[in-house]
Amino acid sequence: MRPIILGIFAALFFAVTFVLNQSMEIGGGNWIWSASLRYFFMVPLLLVIVVCRKNASAVWQELKKNPVSWMLWSTIGFGIFYGGICLAGAYGPGWLVAGTWQITIISGTLLAPLFYEEKMRRDGSIQIVRRKIPYKSLSFSILIVLGVIIMQLEFAVSISLKEALFCFIPILISAFAYPLGNRKMMVICNGRLDVFQRVLGMTIASIPFWLVLSLIGTFTVGIPGRQQIIQSAIVAVFSGIIATILFFAATDLVKDNMVKLGAVEATQSLEILFALIGEVLFLSAHLPSPVSFFGISLVMVGMIFHSVYSSKKIHINSSVEAS
Description:
single chain, 323 residues, mainly alpha, 2 strands, disordered C terminus, membrane, Multidrug resistance efflux transporter family protein, transmembrane, EmrE, transmembrane helix
């Protein structure tokens, strides 16, 4: 249950992104700066944490060992992911971005065949096999996504087709980019770095992407305003630091079990609930209707199924090992 609990708290802090990004959009801030400033602020914050833990040198060694892979997967996992989220926020409200983002629950599960695992043959030799999609876990994910769709359906019909597409397509790309970049970096690090080190390394490796994006922003929309800088700093702390570390810590605990990994990633469906609460409290959004509450119930049922199924798998595996 510990990975699930960490995932839920990560979802809470991740929800700050959607609420504040919507606040910045309402205040006239551009999505380019909402995305770039977050990661610029994250570098010194993470560096302080890692230096205080006296293990910064290992990060530099890993970055120097495989700089191309670090830059590639960090740009995908952080750059493409968050750039897409912020771009989508320019065309749709926070609740729609948060709701559509739940596609990552399914995309994360569908990525399983891109990775390999070791299996013991009967003769004692090791076989490298491609991982399979855990279809039962995927069915629970579909239930969660169905709940999110129902919860937001009445709102979505009020959005124009153009806005919906410009909001949906970037999030669809982000939904695959985030788990792909995260998992690829797990493979590259192979347990040599802890969560703080890996997040710092990925943030540093994604900086070239943010520098290019910020240069584009400077010449197209100008420099960001004071309010956007402050709100971006808050996002960096709550979502970029606290939520990311909690989520990565949760995925690290279950990285070798695709079913449990899917369960942890499914906890991120709660982002829509936390984001909706945040918008109601701070942006004067309307309370959800009975239809939305029905969708919330489906999401929670899907979460329960994920947890029960994962716990059952752990119990069965432990029993087999004990015998």
